[in-house]
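Bumping with the actual sequence this time:
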Amino acid sequence: MRATAAFLVRISSILNRIALAGAVVAVLVMVFSAGYQVVARYLFHAPPVWTEELARRAMVWAGMLGASCAFYERSDPTLFPGMLMVRGLRAGMLESVRALGTLLFILPVLYYCLFGPNFNVARGFIARNLDRQAEMMGISMVWFTAAVPVAFALIVLHVLAQCLSAWAGRPVIPDAPQEELPI
């Protein structure tokens, strides 16, 4: 189990770095397209129609990829910060409860991203956006709506890696800095 946990943690770490780079690129696209729109509107008096839409779509990608990175790094608010210090059987049990709660939220979202009623793929969230076009950019909406299942699939991988890592007796967050509590 230790080898499987180590493999999943490594894959999770690599995908987290890729997601973080994607989130940074999406933020840059958002900032530059909004900046270009401001310059074009107020200096040239000819704002392009696609910049606002591109900024909105980049914001979705930045937010979703950033959420998966925050989950990986455990940057979310924690009710029990001492849980990260627990080792052994208790750590595996606590991490399993966390994993169960996370999966109860994420798996239905992933299901409806892929499938509609009666396992109909054509009525899933992604399939319904295949034929839709972005209003001003002429690009299929699937390029933007794919951010949801991509980010949630990354979170599923992160939660499995962290859970197996806890059961294998390894630190859940490798090389995590120990922060002092402000209280």
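The tokens above came from a reply further down the thread. The two ends are 38 Å apart (CA to CA).
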